[in-house]
Design a protein that fits this description.
mainly beta; 11 strands; about 140 residues
Length: about 140
Amino acid sequence: MCDYSLHALASRPAEVGETLVTAKFPGTSTRGLASEAEPGVAVCILPGTELAFASDVQYDNRWIWTKTIHCRVGKFAAIERDVPHRHHDAIEFPDGSRLLVTQLCEGQRVTVLQLPVLHRKMESLPPTAATDVVPAAAISG
C-alpha cells in the first residue's frame, strides 16, 4: 500500500528479502520506503508484511528531537482507512503500538522478511487433483 500523498510518484511492490531505506520523497512532505538503487520510487507494502529494521526504530513528529522504539521488527499495517486525506501506512510492533511510516526518520534500513498470504476465493480456482478432498477413512483404510 502507498499513502495517498505518494500516488503521483512512481511506485512498485515490495519483494521478499530486499533491503529498503526510509526516505523523504521529492515534491512531497511524506516519508516512505524506497530502494537505494531507485530513491525516487516509492516501494508499496501490503498490510501484514513482516519487516526487520537494521537497528532500533527512530522516529519524530517533525520536531527537533527524535525518539527511539527499542524494537527491530514490525508488521506493516493500514490504519483508519475510512478517514480520507491522511496517512494510513503504519508499522505495528509486537507490543501492539503503531507508528505512521511518515514519522520514520530518514536513512533507516528495513528488510522485507515475509509478504502476507493473499487468499483467493475457492470458486475462482480451477479444479485440480490438489484441491480434491479425500476422506480420512479412505486413507487409513
